[in-house]
Each structure stands twice: as structure tokens, then as C-alpha cells.
Amino acid sequence: EPEVTQTPSHQVTQMGQEVILRCVPISNHLYFYWYRQILGQKVEFLVSFYNNEISEKSEIFDDQFSVERPDGSNFTLKIRSTKLEDSAMYFCASSEGVQGEAFFGQGTRLTVV
Amino acid sequence: AQTVTQSQPEMSVQEAETVTLSCTYDTSESNYYLFWYKQPPSRQMILVIRQEAYKQQNATENRFSVNFQKAAKSFSLKISDSQLGDTAMYFCAFMKHGTGGADGLTFGKGTHLIIQP
Hints:
The complex is a heterodimer of chains A (113) and B (117). Chain A is an all-beta fold. Chain A has strands at residues 5-7, 10-13, 19-24, 31-37, 43-50, 53-57, 65-68, 75-79, 88-95, 103-104, 108-112.
């Protein structure tokens, strides 16, 4: 069964460093998403991406964040100058259509120290 | 903006019992989708069930069913014959019916469901 894969599963980084979280969406899906879940809190929408550009973004997704689809398979989230409060689980998701079911990856746990 | 409220932080039932998880939401949209996602200890988000707001019939998936009350903006999840594997966090989520933009899901804070043997 096709699935969304995320790497790495856990990333530890020093405060102020840049990190890139990687995702491989399901191959025939057209819409890609990033969500964040701070430990013990709800899942929050960050950004959606379609046709090689950002479609929607939340107020969390400020200039510190960027997304890219560098090739035909990967979808990345870059966090510049990480802060302690960026520590969270980051989920990538993809869907076939704009109203289709979103399939989630297993997440990347980001720890900023 | 929409909000999703899950008022039960944690629930515990015996195996084989039926349990209902509550969810209310607030929106000015008339067309939207509602979802229940399950997050087991592995942390992956798994879709349990989905409801289109324009459909009056409540969605059902095997042991999982919803009670969708559009006027009351209520969307509860009923799990029948609960199993140990149902132990997980359950999130209620809302997505508006967009006209082109890929709107994200708005999640509630979740209910931790524990199935006791």
C-alpha cells in the first residue's frame, strides 16, 4: 500500500541552526501539507503546496519556514535559525485532490537544544 | 476561522464496550468536511472516518460510526465492540470546502482513549 515517508524520524539540532525535514508523498498525489504537533498539544496546520507553489499557509508559517519540491518526489520543509519552541513532531501529508483524504507520514520528531 | 473542541481529554472503557467521543465545532462555512483521526503510540495519524457536511446520512466504517448534527455543530464518534488496538489519541478535524486552495485541517486537542482488558 502506498504511503507517505518522512526522514529522518528524529532530528536533534542546536538552536540557531537550519534544518531540512524531508518527505516523499504518495506518487500520484498532487497536494502536499506540513503540520506540527508540539508535545501534548493539538496538530496544527502549517502550509499546503500545489502546482509548485504554496497554496495556503497558517500564521505559524512565517519567514523562518520555507517549503520546496526540489524534484519529482521529495517535498521539504526548511526551518531557518531554529528556536527551542520549534521542538515538535512535524507531519507531512499528501492528498490526491483538494478534497481528498490526507494521508500522513509517521512524522519527524525535531528537538532543538 | 473555524475552531474544533473536544471536551474529553481522556476516556477509559472496558474491552467490548461501546464508547462515544464528542466533538463540536464552530464555523460560518456551509460546505465542509469533518474527520476523525486516530493517533496510536506510533504517532502516525490514521483516518478513521470522514463526513461530508452536505450529506445527511451519518458515515459508518465497520465498528466506527458518527452522529453528525449539523445544526448543533456536533460530530461525535461511536466505537462499538471496542478492542485493545483502539487505544490511541483521537482527533476530530474540520476542513472547509475550498474553491481551489488546499485548505488544511483544523484539529481539536484530542481525546486519549484507553481500552482496558
